[in-house]
Each structure stands twice: as C-alpha cells, then as structure tokens.
Predict the structure.
Amino acid sequence: MACRSPPSVAQPPRMRPPSPQVVVGNEMRDSPPYDYAPSMRPRQGSPQVVINTRRDGLNPDYAQSHNLNWQPSWPITSEQEALPKLKVEWETRPHADPAVAYEGFENVLVIELNDFEIYVCPDSKYGGELCSLEYLDVRGKKLWVDGILSMGNQRFYVQKMHIKSYSVSGYGIEDEDSDTEVYIQSQIASQDQQFDIWYLLKAPRGRYKHIQELFSWVTVLGKHVVDYLELQPDGICIGLRSFEKDFHGWLTSHYPKNQAIQQWVNAHEGTDFRKAVHAHIDYISQEVYNLANQELLVEHSLWGDCMRDDHGSIIPQPLVQSNTIVTPHTYACFKNRYFGSKLAEMPPAEEMAIEQENRKRLLGFPAGAPRGRLPRLGDHNHQSTEIRVGEVVSFTPNDEEKRIWREDESSNQWFAFVRDVKPMSNGTQRIYVIWLYRPEDTTISTMDYPVKNELFLSDSCNCNDEAIHSSEVTGRYSIEWFATTFSSEKDYIVRQKYLTESSSFVSLSRSDFDCDCHENDEMKKARTYQRGDTIYIARRGAEFLSPVVVHDIDFKRQDITVRVLLRYKTCAEYIGYLPRTKDIDNELVWTKEFFTVPLRRVGRRCHIRYFTPEGIEQLPYPYNRNGAGDYWVISTFAMKQDSRPHIRLLPAAPSSLLQAPDLSPLEDKNKLPGLSLFSGLGNLDKGLEQSGMVNTKAFVDMCPEAIHTLYANAEDPDKLKLWLGSVDDYLATLLSGKGTKDSAVLSIGEAAVISAGSPCPGFSTLQLNSLSDESLRNASHVTTICSFVDMYRPKWAFLENVVNMASTRKKQDGELVLSQLVACLVSMGYQVQQFIMNAWSYGSCQRRSRLILSISAPGLVPITPPAATHSNPEGFNARRVGELRNGQGFGAQENCLTPFPYVSAARALSHLPDIGNGVIGGCIRHPDHRLWAPMNSVHRTIMQRIPREPQGSGLKEAIQMKLIPSHLIKSRKKEVGKAYQRIKKDGLVSTILTQPFPADARQGGIVHWAQDRPITIEEARKTQGIPVSDVIVGSQSAQMRMIGNAVDRHVSEALSLELRYAVQKSIRFNPEQETNSFVRIQVAGCNSVATATSTQSQGHDPRYLREMKPVLSTSSTTSEDIVRARVSQRDREDKNTTKAWVAQGLLRYPACSQSSLSVLSKRTYEEVPASVDTPGTIKYLASPNPVKKQKREENTSSVSNNIGNPHGLPNGSCSFSPPRSTPTVDSDDSEGRKTRHSGLEVEFTPSVWHRTPEFLTMKARREKERRDSLPYA
C-alpha cells in the first residue's frame, strides 16, 4: 500500500489508508496577546489590569490540571510509568498484525486516549489555556495533553504529555466511510525503542468537547479537500472558486447516499465551502506538505488564491514612486497645502495629453488647463443709463456685512444678476436680483482657485430681503454665460450654479435665471403627484412615516386624500396571516380605507411593487433590502369578513397603483465601466455595482490581501484588471503612455465612473501625529482622486473619507483640505456635491459616519444625498461638513422622520451562535465567527466582570459598582473612558475599526453585550454589510484591517440607486446599446432615451420618468442645448458609433406604461378585491369619491397620450429644428439678444425680458388660478 506520510515516521495500524502527520519544530514562536502594529498598540493612559495568571479557581478556559483547587478522581501516573504496563497489556492480549511497517518497526502500538484536554505548555505565555490540535504546528505552539490512557483492563490518568506530532486517518475514497481518526504521538512515546506508539483520541473531557468537535469537522474537511485535489485529471487546476459549487457537487457524486457526509455538510450550512477552506487553509496545507505526492498537489492555484506561504495569484507591481504623483493642474491647486512637500508633479506625455483633450471636448469641458486672468474692473459709468433686466451689477457691502463675511478691502464687491426692476417715485429703481457668488463665498472658501475670473450663479435672491436700489450699484460687468473656454473676453465667466442649501455646484441651466421663491414648497411638490403615485405622509403623533397611495388632491383646500396601506408584520392577528421565512420589514398590505391629510404632511416619494407569494420569498434587489432606498413590496390585501379582519392574496397588482420599476441589472455592454482606487475589499465599488448600472473593470490597491479578495469574489476574475501596487505607479504609467491594452492600466475613455476612498489615517482623530512623515503621505493621497479625474474625465466619481477630513487641522490654521479638493474639481468643470452619510440611516446597525464627495460631468444629473430610511439613535448629534466664511455651517445632517427605526445590534447579530469568550477559536456554521487576534487571560478576566446591565457598561461602570478590586487596576489617568465597553444590545455597534482593542479608552463599544469577548470577524463583516457569500482573503488580523477600512455596504448601495437614477435622467445614451429597457422619447429639437420597464402589470417608477423637467418653450434653443448638440456631433465624429440622446423636455409615456390623467379620471371602479362571499369569488366595490369627468385643458406641461408627438403635430410629421450657433457680439441675431434698453450684449436674458413687472405679476396670478382649478398637477 502506498504511504502518504514521510517514511521516517511509523504509522499506527488499521489506517484507511496511512495519513499525513504534522511534526512540531524545535523552536517555539510566541505571539503577543494581540497582533498589533506598533503604532496601534494601546495608548498611554489606557487602563492596565494586573491579574495573577495562576488560576486559583476552576477557569473553564484552562486545563483542569492548571487549577490549584482541582483534584482529579484518578491517581496521577507519569507517562514513563504507564507505558511499560500498557506494552505488557498489548503483548498479552490478542491483536492484529500491523497493516504497514516503517524502518524496522514491526510492532505498532495504538493506545486509546479518553477524557483528554489539549492545552498550551505551561511554560509558554498562554500556559495552561485550552487549544485545538489544529494549531500545533501552524502557530508554532507547544501543546500538552492530559487524559486517560487505556489498553484492555489497564487505565492510567496521565498529565503533561508533550505532543510531538499528530496523524489523521481516513484519506482516500476506497470505501463509503468518510470519517477520520486522529492519532497523536508524545515526545516520550516517540523515543520508545520497541514499539511505534500512538495515542488514538477518543472521547474528550466535557469542557474540551466543543474544541474537539470543531477540529474533528476540520479534519474531515481536510480529507475531502485532499481527495478532491488528488482526483483531478491532468491539466485541471483547482482554485478557491472551485469550492463555491463544484466541490459540493463532487461530494454528492462520490457519496450519493452517505448520511455521515450529509450530516457533515449540514453542520456547515450551505454548499459554498470557500470561507471554510480559507479559514482552515493553514491546516490543509500542512496536511498536503506531509504527503508523498505533495509536488503535484501544490501546483493547484488554491494556495495562491488563499495567499498561503509564498504563493500568490496576482503578481505585485514594483514600487517605484516615493512621492504622491499628481497632474499639473492638481499640483497647482494643492502645492500650498501642508502636505505639499509630498507631491510630485508629472505632466502627461504628448499622446496622453491629446487623448485627455479629446475626452474633455467630448464631454463638454473647456479646453486647456483651468486658468483665468484676473478680472477687469467693471463699467463704472453705471449712472448714465438705467439698470436693465439681464445685466450683472455689483454692490459694496456695508461694514456689518463685511464683518459677517470677513471681507477685506481688496475684494469688497458683491455681484448680482438683475432679474427684475421696478421704477420708484424718487427717480431710482428697485432692483430684484439673484446673487452671483465668488469662489470664496462658497465652500471653496479661501483655498487656491485657479480660475480667477469665474463667478457662480446662486439660488439666493433678495425678494424677501431689504430692498436694493439702483443708487447702490457700483459697477456693471459683462458675463460669458455657459462659458466653454477660460480665455473669454468678457469680465467674468459663469459655468455653474451654487446651491446654498446643499452647498453644491451644478451645471447652469436656463431655468436658473427665474426666481420661484414665492411659491409654496408643498404646493410645488404636490403638483408633481397624480393618482396612483406612492408617497410618504407624516400622520399626527406617528413616530415613523407611512407609505400611502395618492387618491385625490384638493389644491384649494391644500389637502390630499390617500389610501391606507398596512405593514404586513403588524397583521399577525389577521386571519390568513402567514409568517415569512425571512424577516421582511418592507411588505405592505392593500386596503380600501382612505383618509385626508394637509399637504404639509406629505413627504417624499416611495416605490411599491407587486410580487407573487413565491416572489416575496425571493425578492430581487433593491426590494430585498428591508426598505432601504424606499422600496416596498405588496402581495396581499386586507378585508373584513364576519366582522373579523382577514388577509387574502392579491391575484394581480391593483390597477390604481403606479408600480415601481423592475431594476434588473443591465447587460454588461450597457453598464458604465468603472475604475476603483484604494479599493480595499471592494465594498464601495461592489455597492455601486449593485443597482446594475456600473461594471468596475479595474482595481488599484497595494494590499495583497485586498487584491486577492477582489479576485476571489469576482464573477469573472479573468476579465478584471487588478493592479497590485501603488496608485502613484499606476498614475505614472498612465501619464507616461506606457500602459498597454494587456496591462491593468485603463485607457482614457474606459473609466466612466471612478470610486475612491483615500487613506483615512491621514485625517483620522485616532492618529498620534498628523505631521509625521507617514501621516503627511497618507493625507497627500487625497489629491490622487483629482489627478485621476483630471486624466480620465469620468462622467461620475465618488470619494469617501472620514468626516474629519473637512475639519481644520490643529496647528494648521486655514488648511481646509475638503475646500481645496472642491476647488480643484469645480475648476475642472465638474458638478460637485458634498454630504455626510450615516450608515445607520440606510439599514446598517453601525454608528459610522462618512464624508461623501460626488462629482458629475457638465450637463449630467448630479448625485444627490440619498434620503434616510432609518431613524437616528438615541443621543444622535447632528454634524456638518464645514463652515462658510460667514460662520454658517454647510452640509448639516438632519434629524427627520423616517419610515423605519434603526436596526439594532441585537437584531442584526443575534442569529450568530454563542461562542462564549472566543477560546473555541472558530465556528463550523460561520467560519469567520472568530476573534481577529487571541486574547490573553487579562482581557478575558476583565470582560467577565463587566456588567451586562445597564446596556453599554464598561470598565468605568464596573469600577463604580466595585466589581473589580481597586488593587487590580493601574492607570495613568483617573478617567478610564470607554475601555471594555459593551455594545448596547438595543443600540448601534460602534464604528468598526481595523484593530478593535477592548482596553482602548477611546474606541469603546466593541465588547459583546452578552458574551465576554470583543466583536468577531463575522460580526464585523455583517455590521459593514459584507455579503455572507463573500470570502475575505488573508490572516485574521488582515481580514479585520480590511473590514475596518471598508465603506459600509449599506451606504454604497444607497449611492448606487442614486447613480442609477442620475444615469437614467441624464443627457447621453448610446443608441447602439439600447435594450428592451429603453424607450425612445422625442423631444423638441432633439432625441432622448429614458428608461421605462413598466407595463400595465409591471408599472413604472415616476422618479425615473415623470420628474424630468418639461420644456415650456419650443420657439428657441438654449445655450445649454447648443453645447449638448455640439457634444452629440463630437460623439459622432470621434467615435463613429455613438449618438447623443438629450433627455430634456416633455416626456411621453407609452400607453401600456401609464394611463393619462383623463383616463384615470374616468375610472369609477377599482379592480381591487373588497369583499369575499365564498372562496374563489371576488367582488369589486367602487372607490369613494371618484374623480368627476372633466374636460382636459390644453397645457404644454400636461401629459399627452400621443406617444412621440410632444407638441400636437400629426403622427409621423414631428419635425425638429436644428440648434442655433452660440450667440456672440458679432452674431446676426445680436439685436434680439440685447437687454431691454442698454444695448449691452449678453449671452442670455430671461425669456420674459420684454415684459413689465406689473404684467408678469398679473400673468403669474392668472396662471396660478388656472392651475388651482385643475384636479391634479
């Protein structure tokens, strides 16, 4: 029989067949209680606890022989005394001949070992602690064993037997028996000259049982993995991915009716064994290396996928650059920052500069580097003529205004766009303006802004402020509106609008020159709703928002009638209620109840979709996220029968419900290609992909474990471009033009979306020295996103970092890193939004806030902050992104009503099994349910004494309750802070860190609320929203480091929905990439594509279609249209395969997708079951207060049933006017483009410039009265 073990070691008899063994080396490698990096060790001042490590009581974590007060029930016999008597017993009793013999050993002696405990050698740092045999050689530990040696009638209780090696039997598939047996050999037994002595492990001692059960399961896993590798045909390479499905299929085919195999598989739960194989890869590799055919087995890619020893599936890139590489524009913006010495400017090669300019021209960016001359002084002969509508004038702020805005004498002019004037009796004019902001008036603040002659139109007017008169005007200025170049001859250029409420920058549009501040917000919002829409309302006294269906709107009374929807989980007492196999918070029940509320109680839209009962159990994204994103499901209706409430299944979607869409992923060819920087384990990028709109093609990270994790979880890893190296070397390769199609460097134009999370330690409050060389280098990498955006010019991009990035650095007054980042991106021409996202607001159980900065190319729909769906926890303190020069905060968080309560720690994590204090070392069902580093007795003893009530107690409370004797505590501070603080069961988990250390006085909240241990890897990944199916490659400490650095998946998925919404509303789609999901819509002067997946049975989501702004005028083309038309032309010229579809105008819906308002008005009966007399018989009742038939008034903004005929033209004869060229001073059309009296040429004036204010007021009043007379907006 062939031998699997080294021939120098004898095997015990009756092996099936002989198996591999592990031999302990001569040296022992002790590890500290936590595997911390030096910079992350407990801080000075964190409490130190002094506890005698010798056990005076019966501690279940230690061998019983290590406890002084324990007395064994058997007399203690030394191994030297027991072996001779056991050998005599072996010789005197009949036994079978050994199956094999090695090196002259004809006698193999097997002795049973019962009631055993295996523990660490008492002389070691963890002396006496119980330990699994799995770690014998893997961690270099000296292990001892106590137990009863038995042979026939001889039994001896022996202590402190030093384990030299172990061997596992059962390898091969020759028989149906899949069990394994474990043998150990002690140091003394191995020296016997007569016999090859082995101890067969039988029944463990009671408290060691759980550890041995885990090890026994692992030995069976090792056997099957080795057999699986051995039986592969030549040329077949097995990697970690093979254990996702193929391994289980192989098991069932070789053991089709084996109950033992089935029980073994059921203990693991599921057919994906990747996490289990990775968690025990050290043990499996040790088994393989002791086999005779190890050279063949190590050729498999499994070891490289799991990064075992020197194996690796991805080759690292050489580290060449020592500084942070930046483009010339990025360097000009950041060179004066406190980390500027770490920046290295690198201009692009000539061919790369050409590609960069082509990409900029394609997307509508100004050519050349963002530079601008100092603005000229305006026309100060302003008193010679009257102020006209459409002019830009300046004012001098008074002393109080200068003080508030901290103005200096060198920049004391405020600019404004004149939208209206009113003559006064004293000969002057009252001026109504929209303010223009200088860069320093925005969130850019006092940071370096390269375009010196740029202003931003704002949404701030003076309608409700103190009157401004023409006598206060100090100058007039010429403006290049919708500027497409930096070298304008005008005094200033204006490309974007600054939104004061959200502190964001958006592309300038025609409607921005109108002021609607007098219109009621509730009325404006209500006018976008129609019957069948699904919205939230705030009921009086309710704690959460309620989803309802719009039934009727009364604009005169300013109230709305809605249909009541019940939450399925609240109907448990209804007859017919069936519990769900999964916990679903977002399931609703249709009713026939209605009520009326004021418009002021109306919230935002929500999205409801019908599913069959089978579909409820297998919900697609995003309906399977328990309401995150405001997505709800419905499959039942409530009714009363015999005065008792019943629940019945809906046979189909209610006809009066306008359904949400099916957000199925697009085909890969239709998705936006993405690039990920500082990828980590990919939580940000994979979350952005979740909505089906992005396909991240390239990842850049210098952490080998992170890159291998991305490779392991990729759907098609061979198509990924993985750069295992520095972002600086990647950028240098790109700038030099040395990247090839076969390399991991994407070409310009291949990255439509960029996502990045620059190293947060550079801005973290936990760092010890923010000016250290390492901290400066980390902080300088915030510029990386700017350089990549500068070169690739993506359509959208995201940057995530800690909120503290927006704060002013200590000892560095005036260093506003976020403001400089915004300045750099805005100067390029990007729309920029900045906001804080709380993880718990989107369904996470974690108290984690992150700063998100999103950008969008000119003309595209920007990413807005996702609305919170889950409530704030108790003690929530709203934060803000930063502060303007006038002291006003921006980006402030809101504490508003939500439809769901926050997800508590207990609800999110209680499904995981109890592993006590973690000494067991693992969990069969959840392989990552283990500590990231071993704890010593000191930490375990303290946590045992931390009270469980009140929730959130820590060492401080334990000392106050006198649960820990004062002489055991040593501290350099009187305050112990948050050390050893338990997680609040009904609260949130503290922010997951890279090295959660329970003794740290500043971290807090990482000790389990009921178990005496810190948070496990599985709990951390669950808290961060990492899918259960994902495997995280690396050691336990590397796993926790990547998890702590990751973006919460709940946050990135919320952003992905906003990105899909923005893409589907934006201006550009490739017609060659259209699928059945796209419906072509014709608009005045252009074509566009909008997304519509609904039919009468599927419905549609008005958020994705109807909310697009209507075109109210068709007689002229705006400058915005002209720019987009030029971009469309460039698309055709440069790509020869693209055609821009401009999504701006009045939308027309297919008849199968949406009934018009007039059709809905005529429906007097609802197709909704209202009562049931007999089973299978459904009656329909009329809905209350049906909308009366009304003649539909003609209105350019109303919805039409003429598909593709937005302006009433006959079908088939819809014409489109070619876009005009951009008006200039020399244009033939300049006469019509002048202001009312002055003759000053301007690029743009409001469409009503020729009307008097009195006429406009009367017209607006008549329009309002007409709109109020309509039943719906």
